[in-house]
Write a structure and sequence with these properties.
Length: 168
């Protein structure tokens, strides 16, 4: 897999930061239509970079630009899905199965003893209008508002190595 920020991808990185900065609260009422300009849609369309740690046919897991704890990963469906209400039962199962794999890799990579899987819906709670699951290890708090490509690549590499070591 090619490192996510080689070559001209630095420009895409700047665009990704701008897209994230454009997200304001509340932005995702439950009845709003899906907005294909959201940051995750841009990643899925190949228009913004991502530090992907794992993929399935229907889901991807990636390191977010901002995190409160090292090892934080997001699981998102490849399909344009604005919130949990719009997910199929199969997508929900796939998301949680991938989240469980990521949580196991986080334990191997960071030595954490627990984790949280968080999913928000609607205005005031959901900041990006594409359903996503946070998989947050109970590592010490180390808040990062706008991770650099090097920070994201370092986090991605640790989790991928832990996934590879397990045979997942």
């Amino acid at each position: 897999m090619m490192p996510p920020f080689q070559g001209g991808r630095a420009i895409m990185w700047t665009m990704a930061l701008a897209l994230q900065a454009a997200v304001t609260v509340p932005r995702c009422p439950l009845d709003a239509p899906y907005d294909p300009r959201n940051p995750f849609a841009q990643i899925l369309a190949g228009k913004a970079p991502a530090s992907i740690v794992a993929e399935t046919p229907d889901m991807i897991a990636l390191v977010p630009i901002a995190w409160e704890r090292p090892g934080h990963v997001l699981v998102i469906p490849r399909r344009a899905v604005r919130n949990l209400d719009d997910m199929t039962a199969t997508e929900m199962a796939d998301a949680l199965l991938l989240a469980r794999r990521i949580a196991a890799a986080q334990r191997r990579a960071f030595g954490n003893t627990g984790y949280v899987i968080q999913q928000n819906n609607g205005g005031g709670a959901q900041h990006v209008c594409h359903v996503h699951f946070h998989v947050i290890p109970n590592t010490p708090v180390e808040k990062v508002e706008h991770a650099t490509p090097a920070q994201m690549e370092g986090m991605r590499a640790r989790i991928v190595a832990a996934l590879d070591a397990s045979g997942d």
